[in-house]
Design goal:
eight-stranded mixed β-sheet, 31% helix, single chain
Length: 153
């Protein structure tokens, strides 16, 4: 399935006050099905949701550079390892595609390798020029706006 995702995080003021920053809401909306909206409360719930899904999903984030940082930090804190080569892709590993200019394109999380279960988290901007995703562009934008509205309530 294809999803639009967005994290809401604590403010810069809080980070300045106590040095912490965390995800306090996760919004997911199935692309092409605006009735299928999932709201979660933590990064832990998001990773758990990803792992429990029966198929390999694509989740587009408007700003993967920001939201992906929370994902990668959580994975490292919970024992996942970075796979720097294809041979290292094992259960509880992940890969990233980040340019030399710090543009985040993709985070792949390998929950179970022998079962071929891979979750992909993809920055929506990385594919706006890709003809394969042209038919989803309008839906991606609609879902992003819908999620922003819901998460602000």
């Amino acid at each position: 399935m294809k999803w639009m995702g967005d994290f809401e995080t604590t403010t810069a003021k809080r980070k300045a006050e106590d040095g912490t920053s965390h995800v306090w809401a996760v919004g997911l909306c199935e692309i092409g099905n605006p009735e299928n909206i999932i709201i979660l409360k933590t990064i832990e719930e998001f990773i758990s949701w990803c792992e429990s899904r029966p198929e390999n999903d694509y989740i587009w984030f408007h700003n993967l550079r920001f939201d992906g940082n929370f994902i990668v930090q959580h994975l490292l804190k919970t024992g996942y390892k970075y796979a720097s080569s294809p041979k290292e892709k094992k259960t509880r590993t992940f890969t990233t595609t980040i340019s030399d200019k710090s543009l985040w394109y993709q985070v792949e999380i390998y929950f179970k390798v022998n079962g071929k279960k891979v979750k992909k988290v993809i920055d929506s901007h990385a594919h706006y020029d890709d003809k394969a995703f042209d038919e989803d562009r309008e839906e991606v934008i609609k879902q992003k706006l819908l999620l922003l509205l819901l998460l602000q309530q």
